[in-house]
Amino acid sequence: MQEVLYEGKSKLIFRGEDDASILIRYKDTATAFNGEKKEELAGKGRLNAEISNIIFAYLAENGVKTHLIRVVDETSVLVRKAEIIMVEVIIRNVAAGSFSKKYGVPEGTELKNTIVEFSLKNDALGDPMINESQITALGLATKDDLEEMTSQALRINRLLCELFEKAGIRLVDFKLEFGRAGGEILLCDEISPDSCRLWDMDTGKKLDKDRFRHDLGDVLEGYRDVLRRLKNNVG
Ligand code: UDP
Predict the structure, then answer these.
(1) Ligand 1 mean position, distance from CA 180 (Å)
(2) Which of 18, 44, 88, 107 is deepest in the core (most CB within 10 A)?
(3) Which atom of ligand 1 has the smallest separation from the CA of 121?
(4) Residue 86, CA distances (Å) to 4, 81, 135, 139, 180 in order
């Protein structure tokens, strides 16, 4: 067995093929509410890996710099080793989740412009929202880094909205992580139904982790549906 370098909530990290790479393996563990709710969903790792790999390949084809080097097997990818920027970027096209709760806006409310939010990547603190001057004051990222992350995130949003629209899916919101490697800022982590809100365009049916968060049932059926539709609409 290979030595696990790090174990996260939904992924295992192993040594890569050299010092500039690491191997990420997706786990079947589903967590929500900062790890308070936790369950094994057999097959989730494979589904998220495949969905995220399709999305990362599509973004790379469209000029987005990502950490992905190559797919190794059904649940593992080889990626460039990057220093993760401890700031998560959240993009919202439609009101939902914590935004709806915090600002008293019903889920599904259309927004007059795309929202870009930052949150501190810190589970112990519950990933609190953080603003630009707080981020630069703490030295988590520079103003230039944040500008680059924001413009990449908005570009990724445009590309993903187009991709999901073709698949009959509304991209409500999602979270991105970036890292630094070789003087560049790369898109890291994953883009999957664990990190996005995805609603069926016609019925409004939720096809993402909200099914797990709120015990809506058929969690992986939603993920399978997303994968099926993406496969029919890429390449
Ligand atoms: N999200 C995520 N990881 C986090 C926080 C949020 O992947 O640690 C995703 C979440 O799945 C949703 C979007 O980011 O698609 C916005 O999440 P929100 O702030 O509404 O928080 P939540 O309601 O998930 O607590």
Answers:
(1) 23
(2) 44
(3) 8
(4) 21, 15, 9, 10, 11
- Sort 128 into a burial class: Cβ within 10 Å, 0-12 / 13-18 / 19+: exposed
- Ligand 1, atom 21, residue with closest C-alpha: 98
Q: What distance in angstroms lies between residue 88's CA and the mean position of ligand 1's atoms?
A: 10
pLDDT value for 235: 61
- Written as six digits, the tokens of 32 are 């929500």
Closest residue (by CA) to atom 7 of ligand 1? 195
Pocket of ligand 1 (CB under 6 A): 90, 96-99, 127, 173-175, 195-197, 209
pLDDT surpassing 80 at residue 231: yes
21 CA to centre of own chain: 20
Residue 234 predicted with pLDDT over 90: no
pTM score over 0.90:
yes
